[in-house]
Structures are given as structure tokens and as C-alpha cells.
Amino acid sequence: MARSALSLRNVDACYGDSHVLHGVSFELAEGRLLGLLGRNGAGKSTCMNVVVGLLGARAGEVELFGEAVTRYPPERIAACGVSLVPQGRRVFRTLTVRENLAVAARRPRRTGAAPWTEERVFEMFPRLSERRNQTAGLLSGGEQQMLAIGRALMGNPRVLLMDEPSEGLAPQIVADVGRIIGRLKADGLSIVLVEQNLKLTLELADDVVIINTGRVAFRGSAAEVAADHALVAQNLGIF
Amino acid sequence: MPPGAVRALCLGAALAVLAALPWWMANPYYVNIASQILFWAVFALALNVLVGYAGLTSLGHAGLFGMAGYTAGLMLAAGAGHAAAIVAALLATLATTAIFALLALRATGIGFLMITLALGQILWGIAYRWASLTNGDNGVKLADRPAPLGLHLSSPDAFYLATFAVFLLCLASMRLFVRSPFGASVRGTRDQPRRMRTLGYNVWLVRFLAFLFSGFWTGVAGLLFVYYNQFISPQVVALQTSAEVLLMVISGGVGTLFGPVAGAAIVVVMKNVASAYVERWNMVLGIIFVLIIVFMPEGLVPGAARLVRRGYRGLRAGSGPAAAEAAASPGTAGR
């Protein structure tokens, strides 16, 4: 069994008085891609916010490569090698493409994989290279998603969290994003992919966790999910 | 010629004309007004670091401005040399800025504004009431201006040239700041502080450093002010000064390099020139601000840039103004 890159153990989280996560546990193994599925409001993004430290866990533990990071502030967790591609992209709209990348740049922790640089990001996203001096707010939705991914990569993460990267994009662009995620996975990056797009997730993921109303409803392989229509209908379908 | 080269050429020509101002402007009265514009512009540029780039609106900068002026004035009155007074003034301003930042950065938005306002008023109260130290309402007089590199700044022309040199340094440092990764991170904390934290930034520290940078140039502006007037009184430290500089920044264009300079020019010219002809010059200034807000809500410099671009594209394409406006990019104005 590969080393655990990220693990949540019995995590509880609340927004004010509303209890959102109830004892959530799952594990991302190093070099694998974990698909996190669930309906709107199930608690997927909340999980991501807890991992990066934007939301404190009421109970439970978050571990990165065995290091407990539950009480760390967000900047320290980022320094531990976690990058988030946030839902809704959230690029810095008044900064140029290059500035967006420069702000996120962080030296790699270890040698081994080639470090991400501006040139490498532009190589992966030629479209961004063409628009490098453009203000990010003027990019199209797909380009902003590319930029959000590029920005996350500039942090040279060990664990990449992607929160609904296909949201609001044209099918053609979704396919592009899917190819890019596949390449990152092939490079050996450990990835959590939060999605509502079942097809995209099952194509890419090794393991799948399904969250329903703040609880883990299923934990297993992507192949099992693909085969079990009742599971999908109960936890992801719309009645 | 590429548009970048045209811009650089225009800027170079404008700076050359400004540098030569004492030679083509015979009347020392106007040379003095030009000096005032420049040091108010340094002040406005300093405030713009916080208001424009960090998204933190301060109403207490007059306190920092006055801190520099008073420290220099009191040091000189106590018999210190100019160099010692200037260094002490800058250090005192930086220390005060650090205290301001420690207290005010507990909040953002309106909270930040109110805390800086309160801190500024405390300094005003000290200048006004601690008469044994500050001489109260009578203010502090300076006997002399300094003579750096053997050039005595007592004449309007010499003082203008020195101020212009400082202004250029300030402008260059602002440009460097904006273009640097640190400048980008400051703008990032303005736009999306949470995102910056997940990228590994200590948002508080980024804001603190931006505050110190702003405070440093505010102190420099305060020094120029006190040497220009050779006098400082509590009136300078009052809220009205903070508000006036904020107006310069907002009317000229928040978060732009030349906006604060244009804003400073308008306010100083109104104060000095218009008041000679119109008794209610404050009203004229108010009307100008209203017009700016109505027609160029983004400020004078980005607004004018937008109009020029619109006219230029209309001319080139020969298309209607509507098409040109659609093509004009709002986000890049004045950058």
C-alpha cells in the first residue's frame, strides 16, 4: 500500500451553528487520484476548506504525509505542500496572468519531480502564454480555470485539491481540463478531485468517496461506483 | 512606433519639462505652487499604497505626516543638525506607522478606517494640547532649510529641484513596488485575502509591510512640507488633511501611478490659484469633485485614459462610438 498523502479522520465542521460535516474520514494515497462526489450542499467544498485550514475542524484530525495539520493556519498548510484550485476559479481579476502565477510561486520542497515554473505552466497552457500580460478578469471562463490550475501548480504542491474544475465550462473545455488532470496524475501528483460531473470523475479517479449530507456514504474504487447504479441514484441522482 | 515607446517618450518629455520648470516659469509664486503639488503628490502616492493597492482606506495619515514634520521641527529647535533631524523624523514616523499598523490591522474596511481616524486624532490632540512639547496652537518654526551637497534650498528654484528629485524617487519606487511580486501580493490581499492565505501568504504581514512603505513616504512628504513652510501647527495634523489627501487619491484614480499626482495638482491649484479669484473656492473644488464622480467614477487618470482610447479607436476604425466602447477594456485603465 502506498503512503498516505492526505487523510481525514472523523472530521466534524460547522458554519456557525449549522453542523456541516459529521465524522468524515477518507484517505488519499500518494500518487493516486481520489474523486470526491456528492450533491450540492453535501459538504464537499467544506472538506476542502477544512483541509486548507480556511475552516477549523470542530473535531477530528487532518494529516498530510503523517503530519497533523489540523490546527495549522492556512499559510502554514500551504507551506506543507497543499494547493487548492478553488471552486469558481477565483483568480486575481485585477492582476495579469503572469502576476497571478508569480504571486503563487513557491520553491519546491524536494528534488525529484521537475519544479513548476512560469515557462512550464505556459507550456502546458499555450492559451495562457498568448495572454500572459492580459488582466485575468478579462479571460474567458475556461482560460480562468486554466489559470487557476496553473496558479495552484506554481506552489509546487505535493497534494493538489481541485474543487469542481469543470463547473460552468463548455464540454470541449471540460475535456481539455480532464486531459490536463490526467497528465498531472501521470506525473505522480496526489490529487483530490471534487466534482459533480460523474462521468469525468469516473474516467480519472482511482478511488472514489461519496459524501451525502455531511457523512461519508461510500468509499471504494471508481470501478465499483461505475458498476453500482443504485448507489449512484441514491447518493447523486436527483429525485 | 509601438504604443509602449510612445508612452515612454511622452512621459520622458513631460518629466523633462517639469525638471526645467524653474527656467521657463519666471514667477517664483508659481514655482512654489509646483513644489507644493509635488510634495502633496508624494503624500498622495504614499496613501495610495494602502487605499489603492492594499484596499485599506486610512483617515489617519495626517498624523504620520505631522509626526515627521514635528519631529524634525522640534529636533532642529533643540539644536540638532538637519541630517540628524531628518533621520530622526523618518525613524519616528516609521515607529508610529508600525504602532498604527499593529492596532489598525486588526480590522479591514470601515473598522480599519475608524481605527486610523481615531489614531490620527490622538496625534492631533497631542500636537494641540501638549503645549510644553509642541508649543500648542502656536506651532513650531524652523529657522532654516537644509543645504544638501552644498546647494542651499532657501530659494524657490532650489527647493523645487530638490522636491522634484524626491518626487521622482518616490514615483520610481512606486512603480517598482507595483511591478514587483510583493506589489502583486499586496493587490492579491486586497482582492482575495482568503485565497492569498491558501497560497501560503501571511496576509497580515503583507499588509503590515505595505503600511510601513506607505508610512515611509508619508514621512518624506511631511519633511518636505515642514521645510517648505518652515512652520508646522496642529492644523496640519487635523482630520481635514487626511481627508484632503484621500480626496486627491480618489479623484485622481485609486490604484494608479499617476492618479494621485493629478489629484494633488487639482487640489493644490484650486487652493492657491482659484482662491485668488473666487472667494468660495471650496465650492468650486466641491463641484469639480462632483463632476469627476459623475463622469469619471474611476478617477481622473483612468477616466481620461478611457476617453482618449475611445476617441483613438473611433478614429482608427471609423466605427461608431458604441463599438469602440465595447472594445475598450475597463480593467486595464491606467495601469
TrEMBL record, chain B:
GO terms for molecular function: branched-chain amino acid transmembrane transporter activity. Coiled coil: none annotated. InterPro entries: ABC_transp_permease (IPR001851), LivM-like (IPR043428). It comes from the Bacteria. It is a multi-pass membrane protein. The chain crosses the membrane at residues 29-51, 83-105, 112-131, 158-178, 199-225, 245-269, 281-300. It is found in: Cell membrane. GO terms for cellular component: plasma membrane. Keywords: Cell membrane, Membrane, Transmembrane, Transmembrane helix. The keyword Thylakoid does not apply. This is Branched-chain amino acid ABC transporter permease. It comes from Propylenella binzhouense.
